Amino acid sequence: MLNNKKNIKKKKTITTKNTKVKQLTKKERVLEEEKRLRESFENLSDKKILNIVDGLIIRASYMRVQLEIYENDLTEKGYIELFSQSEDLEPYERERPVARLYNALNKNYQTIIKQLIDLIPKNIQEDDDGFEDFCKE
Questions:
Q1: Where are the alpha helices (DSSP H) in the chain?
Q2: Which H or E run contains 87?
Q3: Rounded Cα–Cα distance for residues 30 and 15 (Å)
Q4: Cβ(125)–Cβ(29) below 8 Å
Q5: What is the C-alpha to C-alpha distance for residues 107 and 101, in angstroms, rounded to an integer?
C-alpha cells in the first residue's frame, strides 16, 4: 500500500528551458497542473461555470500527478506480482493493487477532463473548420 506522506515528499526532476534541474514536490506539481488547466478556462465569464470548473480542475490536477506516480511504480515494478496466502502455498501471479488503482483513477481522470472540455463554450473550444458539416453530409 502506498504511503501518502512518503509520496508527498518525493520530488520529480523537471528540466527547464535553461536546462537547469528543478525538484518539485507532489504538492508543487499539483499546483503547476492546476495553473496549466486554469489557463484553458481564463476566458470564461459565466461565474456558475467557473465555480464548477474550479472543483474539477483541483481534482483533475491531483489525479494527473497521482497517475504519474502510479505510472512510475508500474514501469519500475510491473503490473503483475507473485503472491501467496502463506509460506506453505505455491505463489501465483496476480495483478498488483496499484495497477487496479491506476486503472480506476485513470478512468475517473478521463471523465473529469471530458467534463471540463464540455464546459468550454463551443466558440472557445476550436475554430470551425467545416469538418462537422462535412461529416453530416
A1: 4-9, 26-40, 47-77, 97-119, 122-125, 131-136
A2: none
A3: 17
A4: no
A5: 10
